[in-house]
Amino acid sequence: MENFLNLEPLTLKDEDWFYRLTYPVGISDLSFPLLYAYRHHLNVKCMYSNEGVALIVQNDAYGKRCYTILGKINETVIKEFVNLGINEFSYVSGAHLPIFTDIEVMDWDISYDINFSDYVYVLDNFLDFGRKDREKYRYYKKHHFPRMVEMSQENWDDSYKISESWSEIHGDSSVFGDESEVYHETKKLIGHPHLEGMIIYDEDVPVSFAIIEKRGEMIVFPFSKNSVRDQGLTQFLYYEFFSQFKGRVKWINFEEDMGILGLRQFKQHFHPEFLIHKYTVRLRKN
């Protein structure tokens, strides 16, 4: 099937059209940096047409095939892919569901997992920290010597050092294999117009970093690590970094909590404006 569809591995040459098609889509899993960095582990392949339609195929570590359509999705496109043997579409936005359900000759099972729904915040509201978070922010700023530096190819290795220290503290969190390879793949994207990152130094020691993807009025927040457990470091990073986007973007997408209780409580206490549900649409067998 893959050869018949002319599917090719995702490359840096795909970045421009990918961003054009995902510009209006808020779902974090359609982040080009993530898909590109994990393309070997997830076996990410794609097909793109001049009509502005793309099919992204993932074969993840569990063997599940995921199919996502981007661009000018309509009934004709869906029928064409179904005729080619594709009967499951993952990461479908709620806005696209009627396109599937309105096809009278096809019956679909539609589902979503709340554990993988994205947390979305209004930027200005997010930066209006509650009392405890403000106190943590001020404490770190008062008792440390933080300096924020724009991430670049030259200081990229410092972010990797932070990540290694984070892993020593928290244990290996990798789901898809060697994260060092993923970091080195992501490095290729630093300096591209859709990606922006910052590193926090404390007395010239790198202690925290964050990378965001710019997508229209939304920024998607896929990468962040602290190398120490200092009180208020996270709040300092968030406030100083995201304050730079005031007046430039409206929304922050903090991705999903994966059902992890501590992560869920942390993301909820910043008061998300809404959750983005990612639907899986499967053609029901007769």
Provide key terms for this protein.
286 residues; alpha+beta; Aminopeptidase
Query: What is the spatial order of strands in the main beta sheet?
Result: 8-9-10-11-12-7-13
Quickly count the helices: 12
Under the CATH scheme, which architecture of the largest domain would be assigned? 3-Layer(aba) Sandwich
Number of domains: 2
What is the CATH homology-level superfamily of the largest domain?
Gcn5-related N-acetyltransferase (GNAT)
| CATH topology group of the largest domain | Aminopeptidase
Low-confidence stretches: none
Q: Report mean pLDDT, rounded to a whole number.
A: 89
Describe this structure in words.
The chain has helices at residues 2-5, 15-22, 32-37, 39-42, 75-83, 97-101, 123-127, 131-143, 156-170, 179-187, 233-242, 261-268; strands at residues 8-9, 45-48, 53-59, 65-71, 88-92, 108-111, 118-122, 146-150, 195-202, 205-215, 218-226, 251-253, 274-276, 279-283. With 286 residues, the chain is of the alpha+beta class. The chain has two domains: 2-117 and 278-283, Aminopeptidase (3-Layer(aba) Sandwich); 119-275, Gcn5-related N-acetyltransferase (GNAT) (Aminopeptidase, 3-Layer(aba) Sandwich), CATH 3.40.630.30. Helix 8 crosses helix 11. The model has no long low-confidence stretch (mean pLDDT 89).
Layout of helices and strands:
Layout: H1 2-5, E1 8-9, H2 15-22, H3 32-37, H4 39-42, E2 45-48, E3 53-59, E4 65-71, H5 75-83, E5 88-92, H6 97-101, E6 108-111, E7 118-122, H7 123-127, H8 131-143, E8 146-150, H9 156-170, H10 179-187, E9 195-202, E10 205-215, E11 218-226, H11 233-242, E12 251-253, H12 261-268, E13 274-276, E14 279-283
Helix pairs in contact: 8-11
